[in-house]
Write a structure and sequence with these properties.
With about 150 residues, the chain is an alpha+beta fold. Helix content is about 30%, strand content about 20%. The chain has a five-stranded mixed beta sheet with strand order 2-1-3-4-5.
Length: about 150
């Protein structure tokens, strides 16, 4: 399979990105994780619709509730840079473990649309699901619109 660049034109097919490169970006981000308590390093790479890729790594804290997941770090970095439309996010933990976004991360991700592709990988096998499939019956911006 030929490698494609991560840079994508606006309004492109959300499944047209190169999963291999996006997973590699997530693994590179994982190398920067700060996980002295759980020893469970996670990296995320979020592909914006304009082609930019935003990386995040989990950051733990001695006050556990103040820790932040890699997925939310990537989303918040993207928003801070002006990106609000996303195609996909790759999430990697330990190489042999498929690491799915936690509930809080799923809620943050669905904020930006139900079609966002979530890519995980374990033992070299990638799996892709929409965020809507991972958070059925979600409370989202659509919920608020329907209530008006």
């Amino acid at each position: 399979m030929a490698k494609r660049t991560l840079r994508m034109p606006r309004n492109s097919n959300p499944m047209a990105y190169d999963q291999v490169n996006l997973l590699a970006a997530a693994r590179a981000a994982r190398a920067n994780a700060y996980a002295p308590y759980s020893h469970f390093s996670v990296g995320a790479a979020l592909l914006a619709r304009d082609g930019r890729v935003f990386r995040g790594a989990n950051v733990e804290n001695a006050s556990y509730g103040l820790s932040m997941c890699a997925e939310r770090v990537a989303v918040f970095a993207a928003v801070a840079a002006g990106a609000l439309a996303f195609e996909a996010i790759a999430v990697v933990g330990p190489d042999r473990t498929a690491t799915m976004p936690c509930g809080a991360c799923r809620q943050v991700l669905i904020e930006f649309g139900p079609t966002l592709a979530v890519i995980t990988q374990a033992d070299g096998v990638a799996e892709t699901q929409s965020i809507a499939a991972l958070l059925p019956a979600a409370f989202s911006p659509l919920t608020l619109e329907d209530a008006r």
